[in-house]
Please model this.
Amino acid sequence: MSDRRLGWLLLAPALALLGGLTVYPAIWVIWLSLHYRIPVFSISRWAGLAHYAFLAVDPRFWSAAGVTAVFTVASVALECGLGLAMALGLRAQRHGRRAAVALLLLAWALPSVVTAKMFEWLYHPAGGLVNFLLGGRPVNWLGDPALALPSLIAADVWRTTPFVALLCYARLLTIPAELYEAAEVDGAAGVQAFARITWPLVRPILLVALLFRTLDALRAFDLMFVLTGGGPAGTTETLTVYAYRALFQTLQVGFGSAIGVVVFALVMVVAVAYLRLIHRQEASA
Amino acid sequence: MAPRPARAAAALVVLLVLLAAGCRERPSSAGPVTLVFKHAKILGPADPVPGLLRRFEAEHPGVRVVSEALTWSSDEQHQFYVINLEGGSPPFDVMMLDVIWVPEFARAGWILDLTPFVPAAERDAHFASAIEPAMQDGRLWALPWFMNVGLLYYRKDLLAKYGLAPPRTYDELIRQVRLIQAGERDRRLDGYLWQGKQYEGGMVNVLEALWANGTRLLDDAGRPFPEPERARESLAFLRDLIVSGVSPAWVTAGDEELTRRPFGDGRAIFLRSWPYALDLFELPDSRVRGRVGVAPLPSLPHGAVGAGSTGGAHLAVSARSRHPALAVELMRFLTGEAAQRAMTEGAALRPSRPALFADPGLIARDPTLPALLPLIRAGHPRPVTPYYLMLSTTLQPEFSAVLVGRKSPERAIRDGAAQVEHLQQALAR
Amino acid sequence: MRTGRLRDGIVLAALVLYAMPFFWQALTSVRPDAELLPLSHLLPSRLTAVHYDAVLRQSLMPRALLNSLGIALSSTVLAVGLGALAGYALARLPVPGRGVILLGMIAATAFPQIATVSPLYLLMRALGLRDTWLALILANASFALPLVIWLLAGFIREVPRALEEAAAVDGAGRLATLRFVVLPLVAPGMASAALLAFLFSWNEFLFAYTFTATEASRTVPVALALFPGVFEVPWGDIAAASLLASLPPILIVVGFQRYLVRGLLAGALRE
Model:
């Protein structure tokens, strides 16, 4: 058998699975979004761009888009900042490295539902640790419209900062100590050493982390769905939660698919933009 | 020859496919006829259902009735039913449904048309407001199992202390709350508790406020908010209850149980809830035993008194049941007079048969029964449409936004109407 | 180097503090009900196993753990099995359109689940696969596959061509080379990919929530999210269930840390 043939043969099963369960649905969802489709009542007819026209002027959609934007920007900024700080703090570690990484990874590896339940309990007005440490004030973290989104962001940052920290940490470990020693001899230390040595070397990896985290934050669903369900009053309802409610609560498969397509397009646009940015950075470096 | 890892993987996959296929729920083929009865846990002092099922089994030898519990949350129950009934052969025969789902399930073809099985006399033995939502296109699809109506609980002792009668208007209620709170000087005594959380119960509270002001959610043609100004007043009123402190801010997260407990501990003057709570308030160890009164819900300027929401559970038969005739018999047995009497005696439930409200035996156990009869008759059913739940889940976030102060009532009504119209566009045939 | 030890100690303490939410949940799972609400003392007066008892004996968690384990193992085997073959093909064999396919893989890792959940729901419904393990095995494997292929293709490319050429000189065909030369060398990489795929499947919520209807077919995340409580939420039981749900991730993080980290870094650093 020729190499070419063998190549296709080995590739075929994977492509079949991907084709059937990832690519085909990705195309089908666009088709669905152009229909009025409510399976429960056997409603299925052409809608054209009616759903998209509705979304363009739908206050709930724009509110969800705003929540998604705030959640993404705030989470990612905090994660990258905190992650880098953590990595810098870990860098000089000699002993207990495995334990340190294990403690970090724990937060990342837990199922998001476990994290959601954990934080729901931490934020509980009467039984939660947070209010206890604040002296017993009955702050309603998840029920107050002004506090719910920051609380959600805090939970997400806790969960995903380890990923960024690990990436930066791995990169920091590869920077030879001689560079810093040479800088000290030159009289530059601390902040200057950071700016001249650390930052340029860590920046590319931070950009990659930024890409991954942004895409993940845009697609995030589990945490907000289980922690707050999008409430109170839609203050934590991201586009993904809005789509899910439209799909499986009001059973509007066509309309819900339209919102899903919007999320899809958003994620793809951001991915392409970031990749271009990264390639341009690498080209100029 | 495929390399070993791939072969092992393939073998494992095949094995797992077989395992997975076998992991699906398989109906039992041999043995006695088994009926599966799906219902939510009955609240109250005792659960009468097992006893009733054993009685049915005794009267029908060779038949076994298996009782399966649903989750507590109404929304989850609905999702469970939809996912199971949609898929094909659901593994149950008789099911307990919230009355608001009956038109939806009937339209979707999931429940059996009961018209040929239930004589008119049996149908008429139930409340008209319970039968009406169970009828679709002139056919009967479910029978009422127990009845609910929204009503006002009040602390008899506190009102008597200040020489007050139960309020007939909400203005009166607010005045009474202020008077009592000033007199009692108890910081922890809340005024009026109700369910403002974003769920079906919250929707009920909003609907009752709309009806109390003489307006409806949908007009006869199905258009939303036929009298927007009155609807605005109702929503503004609910929000004002929180802003003015008559209701504590946490009612926006309150459901039936979260609001019943403080009232049951004596920490509130008024409570809007369902009849089941009364039984729990009258338990021997209840702190408010003997001090709770029941009254119709007050009115707002443009409406009438007692605009409580009627509700309750109905029983229906799955259209794909393998023993439809037997399932119908079980359903008729459970909704029959004897079973409903047993349920009223044992659990915190109210029958859907008006005759039982005048039954001396039941009245002896629960003297409030006759008082409930006019309340139920004055109550309103929620909009009877197959699309009620879609409507409710679409509007709930809008109403919730008003209650927590994130949207003005005008905007919520406007946005809500737009969403409903978009939904109706999809539903138009 | 005393200051070094001290500094390491401080860093570890800081990290323990970071993981505090998890340890708090563990503490909650052994705290008696009466001391849960309201919280009056940090440490419980005594420890109790009543929550674990309730979860293991009266709840759906045992069944859910079985479901999750079966589904996660199967989808991992499927993803890594197919992924190894595909990765080799893309890394070493002259498949036309290779670049495009690889690019497609990268793009596929960015697909949002919310976009594909509605067509997949309709598909599973049409195939009658709702409530089966198979639906979730296929969905999870398909979602993990792009990353697995990408990772394994990268690891395979790192194997020196000389080794494969030597095997060819010895008369081994492509497949034999793959089986006896390449895969053993890439085994650590495969372990990394397998761990990531397993974690993804174990933690996966959206598809599991949507495709399962009956209680018996729920996976661990769904069972935890839908943990029943009639009047009040049983926080102690939920904490115990959460701890049980976290066992495989903890095991992997503690026991297979090296492979996990390698997989994470490779996935991020490979462009």
